[in-house]
Amino acid sequence: MSLGLPGHLVQATLSRALARASHWYGLICLIGALVSVLALSMFPVTDRLQITIAAILGMGALLALLARWRTVPLTLAYLILGAACVYLYTSSILGMPDVFPSSDMFLIALPKMALIMVGGAGSGALIGVLWSTAGFVLAEAAATLAVAQTTVPDRPDLFTIVTYLILVGVMLLDGLTRRTGRAAQPAIHRAVQDDQSRILRHDFDVRAIALMHDTTLNQLVSVARAKPGPLSRGLEAGLRETLQTLAERDWLTHVDERTAATPAGSDGWLASAVFRAIDRSRDRGLVVDITGDKDALGRLDPESDRELGLAVQQCLVNVLLHAGIATAEVVIDADDQNVSVMVLDAGRGFMEAETGSDRLGLRQSVRKRIERLGGSVVVWSRPGAGTSVLLTLPAPVAAPASGEVAP
Amino acid sequence: MTARRATQQRLDPLGTLAAWPLAPAVAAIVLCNTVIATVLQSDQVISPLLATLAVLAMAAAAGTLVIATQPAFSPFGTRMHVAMLGFAVLGYLLEQVSRWGNNLLVQDDFGPVGIGLLLLALAPYRPWRQIMGSGLLASAVAVAVTVPQAPSFQINVPVAVFAIVAVTQILAPTAAGAAYSRRIVKSILSWQTDARRAMVARTEEARGQVARAVVEQQVTALKSGVIPFLSELLERGTVTAIDIARAGQLAADVRRSLVAEIDRTWLDSVATRERTALAERGTPGLLVVADPEHRATMFLAEQRAATAALIGALCAAPGFDPHSLVVQIAGSAVLVPGAPSVPAGPTPLGQLAAAAPTQVDTITIQAALDLPPRRVRALLRPYLGVIRVVFQNVRITVRRPSLTIEFDGVRDTSQAPASLEPLATPATPAGVRAHKAPRQVR
Lengths: 407, 442
Known about the structure:
heterodimer, A: alpha+beta, B: 442 residues, alpha+beta, 3 domains, five-stranded mixed β-sheet, 14 helices, elongated, two-component regulatory system (chain A), transmembrane (chain A), ATP binding (chain A)
């Protein structure tokens, strides 16, 4: 939103907007002139009224064309036809006997102002000023010529002059005073771009940290909790897996999920990351009971599936490490909008407020992961009363057509 | 913001800033015209009191325009718009009443011209529909007060012609203003779309590189301690008491560094970058970020960018004391519903839904800038112009050399992402984190 126009576009954009404004000003003036002529022609009709109406309509049509294509030929055509129109209009209005006391009538100024508002071709304050000046000179010349042929005294038309001066003032100001913000605008653009990069970097950092936690930190904690002596089978497998992961660096692809693998196969449950996470925990000696609508997991897109799998894995790791119990229950549930997985244990339980300040697992590996995908995490736990973690991810039921396409 | 309510001022604050002298100029023209018309046509005035009040009302309208377009008052709100229009129409009505039955010409009345010019001056500040709507409303008033006066007019033409004169004087400038507003907003929006797309593309290109850098950083941190330790352990096949102690210690180290990284917000990154820039310029400095509740994480993209640009401008300003910058974010207490109680068993989701209070974050930036206050203001004007659009209640205090800028970010917590959970450590200058860590989940 604060992304203002960059310097190189300012001139062209402003010029276009000012031209558009001029054209509308001119159009309203011409409409006013047309309606005035029509209103006056109901009065004693002068011979020139019809041709005047035609001239105004032609000028309006050219103005509409000019608003669409600001080209030099159209601009010139508008100026020439406009001058003719001003002449016809002025002479037919002022030619009405004993109606107007002098030439400085607002009614007379209408087509003249429309002519000044030519908003001609080209961008840049000076070109705009030049076109308007041409319009002004032509309008005044045509009007003076027309007034000279009537009996009405010629007085300076303040409306046209002031309109011209204001227009020129605006164009010059918009064209020349832009300089103040010149240094700041690029700085703000840079800040927006930097912000984008920072967000991307932060996103990757968060994911990398979650993965770090899953691999390295969990492994270190397992070692720290081991009994002195030979490595247990589970611990050895874990160590090997961790070192392999770190060496292969293939978690680069996990960090940047764009390069991730293709989605699951036909059996949603067996292919799901949740299943794999549970399988891995079983390898480590945890007894896991699974109930509920397992196939619902197939609805998750690959990213959600992988992240949910990692989150469930962390929950199960927590059971292994903290609950003091070797059994857990996983309940899978789904409605039309969401898929949820609940991990329950009857272990030690804990108070969220009393856990160590430097503990990351639930916060980073579970909560942040799920929330990043628009899901939610609810934890119920109390010392001695076990722990339940409910992970919910949005996964609307797909339309029957999608996903069922034959290969 | 919706395109319907978009204005140049909101989309391109700097451009509007450059055009602001137009408003006082228009106000001056309107005021002069009002006074001159009243003096020159004093013979038509029946009630001098009402004529004087009319001039005053028009002056009030012009004054409203000048005040509302001041950079310090941006953005130009609906209330000021209505006030300005109200004063102007009131001035017009008073003028007409003051010479009712004795008005010779419509074209020299100051009301329609004044209203038209004032509405024209709104072009950079107000949505085009509102400008046009105001013009149509004023035109209706003009028709209503012009037609009944027809018998007193000096010129003998159909009454419609008088109405046309009054209405055109209002509508022509109004239409020009509305067209400008519409066109410029359209141009800026379409450019922004392109710019965003280009920016996303550029970020996307850097994606692999950033991911690699992140991974590299993590692995490098592990290479010195954790990886050799684990491989040695695996090789040996046994765990000793020393290994267990070492593993505990390494785990604590890794955890600590991860926590510190998670708690870094964009504001810390901005401070780090500026600190590096200062060091490169040969004036290493200390930039302090105090955001104990990590409110910075809730900022929107444009708020982040505007704040970062302002901080960058301050650090690059001549006369800036590199040890002086302090950025604080504080705010009113969050009225989050009490923590969920522990239910006996699984309960459906949705029980957490509760009232969403409005949340105000107050950002305070303090710095020492050894410059005359006028230059400080001139230097910061463009940045503050942007800040004013994306934040509210911008306050600036300049007492050489100290400079304090405060502004409020107001957000509706019901739309906020669900990451209000407090982070582990309070944010202090990066790397100098305090050890106060009250709350954490396992």
